[in-house]
Amino acid sequence: MSGPSTYKPNSGFERWLDVRLPLPRLLHDTIHTFPTPRNLNIWYTFGGILTFCLAVQIVTGIVLAMHYVANAGLAFNSVESIMRDVNYGWLIRYMHANGASMFFLAVYIHMFRGLYYGSYKAPRELIWIIGVLIYLLMMATAFFGYVLPWGQMSFWGATVITNLFSAIPVVGTHIATWLWGDFAVGDATLNRFFSLHYLLPFIIAGVVGLHIWALHVPGNNNPLGIDVKSPQDTVPFHPYYTVKDAFYLTLFVILFAGFVFYAPEFFGNADNNIPANPLVTPPDIVPEWYLLPFYAMLRSIPNKLLGVIVMGGAIVTLVFLPWLDTSRVRSCRFRPLMKQFFWAFVVACVLLGYCGSQSVDAVKFGIPMVWVARVASLYYYAFFWLILPIVGLIETPKKLPASIAQSVLGDSAAAPAE
Amino acid sequence: MRLTHLSLGSAVLALLTTASAFAAEGAIDTKRLHPKAVEFSFEGPFGTYDRGALQRGYQVYKEVCAACHAVEHLAFHNLAEPGGPEFTEAQTRALAAAAKVPAEPNDRGETTDDKGTTLTRSATLADHLPAPFPNENAARANNNNSLPPDLSMIVKAREGGAAYVYSILTGFHEKAPTGFKVTEGKYFNPYFEGWNISMPPPLNANSVTYSDGTKATIEQEAHDVVTFLAWAAEPKMEERKRVGFGVIIFLIALAGLLYAAYRKVWADKH
Q1: Which class is domain A42-282?
Q2: Between A and B, how many residue pairs show a Cβ–Cβ distance under 8 A?
Q3: Does the B8-74+129-259 domain belong in CATH 3.30.70.270?
Q4: Chain A contact present for B103, CB below 8 A
Q5: Residue A275 forms beta bridges with which residues?
Q6: Fewest CB within 10 A of the end CB: N or C in chain A?
């Protein structure tokens, strides 16, 4: 893909196949000889880790669907039956439930990495935008999935989120009714959410294909953010990055296994072990941790419609990122000012997540959390719409190294090459 | 999702703020107290269920709790399975045979006798433990309009888990603070949100007679039945921890091999 193909068919069958369906050539060029910058660090292993997460979710999900019953009267007990009666059902379900959290953990690291090293800048704008689309699909899929066990938090989470659409003027309530398939969240809603929960992962898989395809045209960005200039700057993907990705993936799976086997309910909510009851509202309706920053934004705005717009806008903003950053330097390593704003942005996101996990009227250290959420939301928007455009114009970046090879070999040489 | 791991210190703090709120406004903050600090055999990465506690806990459940609370997800055969109370098959068959469950329709298609009483039969290993009430309305009618929750998931369905359930069971018999009025028909329990609980104090010393000679104090009975309920909520826990140990050892070995391969492959590229 990137550059001319170096594939040489070795056997008669490969030559026959190569002029008909050149699948071996595609694989050879994309996962074997693909020239990859030699300086990629640990944060660049999360792309592979995410592919693994998607595969785990699809495989465990297909098995769960063999035993799950999408019916408001039976769903909760069918999940308990998976936990108790299906051979290793507890393992499959805990992998799937914790796998969702692991998936989001990895995707957030992957996104922050892209933000820090400027991986969204030309010529990689489409990789970023397709990535935002994947993230959006992931959130939808995770939300539908969380509804399926039909516990109290499933039911009331679904009620709160679908009710957001009723904030739309004039047609809002009609849209909500149309989404529910009823006049409230119920059996019809559960059925369609199950259907969509099964469909969306395959759409994600397709869009991930586009994401990787778009990546393989310009090739990887790297921590220096400078272009590959000579073959000296790269190594073939295999074995250099297959072995590195495999090692870090294994470390990630150890963390994953730690949760699955020793703290499987860590990310869960006790209330979701109570069957859904439309007549009893839980004291606190809290979404899963990975949606908390957006939940905090929503709740920090006193007006419902405005809150929904602010929350949705936070995600839509990401699409414009490639054109909001005016700097000609990609990597924050060489952007002393931007680096500080970046870390402040990470802190703002974590703070938003924390605020989302607290009740609306929570006060910590004498500070109402809703105000913390407001300030953090404001910073979130300011970061993209003010700081990124302005800092790029006023900042003096540090001197970029001449090439990746010089930077890598210069670091290891006794005398620093300048 | 809310991870409210309060320490003892913050529990004291909660009490203090409760006291100051009381002093300031004359009203009492009836937020539930942090659960008591209590240890269980099944905690930690290698913790298992204490078999004796599970068997005694089943006895407490059957002789005390089962009067009002169902455990709908438990079947009799579960009582004999590895990782659970592990009654012998003969013991479990006897336990099942002693229990009465609603009978299937007889030859004439009847499920009740001439007087309208539900026909019953002895349970088998395949039957789930019988529920005390046929439906929610019957349960409420017998419990001052309150619904005794199903207990099969209770340890997982309450924030604070096993310690919370233990604190509720042993949290009666404390004197309500002056100024707090217990609602008519309710009972004072500071470990329950709002401090008014519909359940009367369920356990007394010697509520059950243990066959293994264990002294049946309230704390002992509560500890045993909570162990039983923790197992009921998470019956595959022992298998999970055992499999997990092997998986993680394997992954660490694999990571070691991959690290060696990684160093070797990259040796000339750094």
Answers
A1: mainly alpha
A2: 93
A3: no
A4: no
A5: A151
A6: C
